[in-house]
Amino acid sequence: MSGIFVSFEGIDGAGKSTHIERLAQAFRECGRTVTLTREPGGTPLAEQLRHMVLNEAMDPMTEALLVFAARRDHIQRVILPALQRGDVILCDRFTDASFAYQGAGRGFNWDILSVLENWVQGMPTAFGGMSGQSVLQPDITLWFDLAPAIAAQRLAGARVPDKFESQPVAFFESVASGYARRMDADPTRFVRLNADQKPDAVWQDLFDAVRVKGLLG
Ligand code: TYD
User: Fold this and answer.
1) Domain coordinates of the chain in residue numbers?
2) What's residue 126's pLDDT?
3) Distance CA 45, CA 212 (A)
4) With left for phi above 0 and alpha for psi between -120 and 50, is residue 107 left, alpha or beta?
5) Ligand 1 pocket residue status of 47, Cβ below 6 Å
6) What gap in Å lies between CA 152 and CA 9, rounded to an integer?
7) How far apart are the CA of 93 and the centre of ligand 1, in A?
8) What is the pLDDT of residue 125?
9) Strand pairing class (122-123; 134-135)
10) Max Cα separation, the chain?
């Protein structure tokens, strides 16, 4: 059985977290072993980097380098081994978040992010690459798309906001445009979910999308 890599994306407050466990359960019911993980994070080192990125003030380049350093450790220690075992990996955020938050949100150079992506996610030929290097990407990226003003209402008072969650709505408008740009560049990988619906309706769309891709059931 070959591994399946699924990432979940969206602005803070879009509601992705509630669906990750549900999709894990659906895969388990099909007899799959599921690895649940997140970025930044997923390894002890990457979790330390996450803590810094979410709590310390820093310039956008430092932030980009730290999230990609965390990603490198996560890929090496968790994602590749899980894919090699044939697991399903459900990852709460991956590289698209770096383009959306550090690129579109904080204004860091998109081309340099692409260089970092190719560098950090570059895989040897032995890992499925057709020629030379291939760049590891999720098999499917589920983008929970929600108007930033609605996401802000959902987040208000829910918990103590971290560095990103406390940003104004305009920041999340930029982040959302970053996700749209990433989707335009890779439309077959992305599924844009209307997150402005009741959770069961979002779930139905998500489940259908994963099935249509031939990844489930
Ligand atoms: P999030 O995934 O929303 O987790 P939680 O539900 O625990 O708040 O938080 C992660 C934050 O990190 C989110 O605000 C987006 C940000 N982030 C980046 O800025 N760059 C990245 O590359 C990644 C993966 C996340």
Assistant:
1) 4-212
2) 55
3) 36
4) left
5) no
6) 16
7) 7
8) 59
9) antiparallel
10) 50
* Domain 4-212 CATH assignment equals 3.20.20.150: no
pLDDT, position 127: 57
Collapsing DSSP to helix, strand or coil, 91 comes out as: strand
For residue 40, how far is its CA from the centre of ligand 1 (angstroms)? 7
- Atom of ligand 1 lying closest to residue 106 CA: 19
pLDDT of residue 217: 78
Q: What's this model's pTM, rounded to 2 decimal places?
A: 0.95
**CB-count exposure of residue 182 (10 Å: 0-12, 13-18, 19+):** buried
Q: Kindly give the distance from the C-alpha atom of residue 73 to the centroid of ligand 1, in angstroms, as a whole number.
A: 17
The series of mean pLDDT values per 10 residues for the chain, 217 residues long, is: 93 92 97 98 98 97 98 97 96 98 98 96 64 82 97 86 92 98 97 97 98 93
Which of 21, 93, 120, 182 most suits a substitution to test ligand 1, by most atoms within 8 Å of the C-beta?
93
Cα(1) to centroid of ligand 1, in Å?
31
Q: Is 101 in the pocket of ligand 1 (CB under 6 A)?
A: yes
DSSP-H helix ranges across the chain: 17-29, 44-55, 60-74, 80-85, 95-97, 110-120, 148-155, 169-185, 199-212
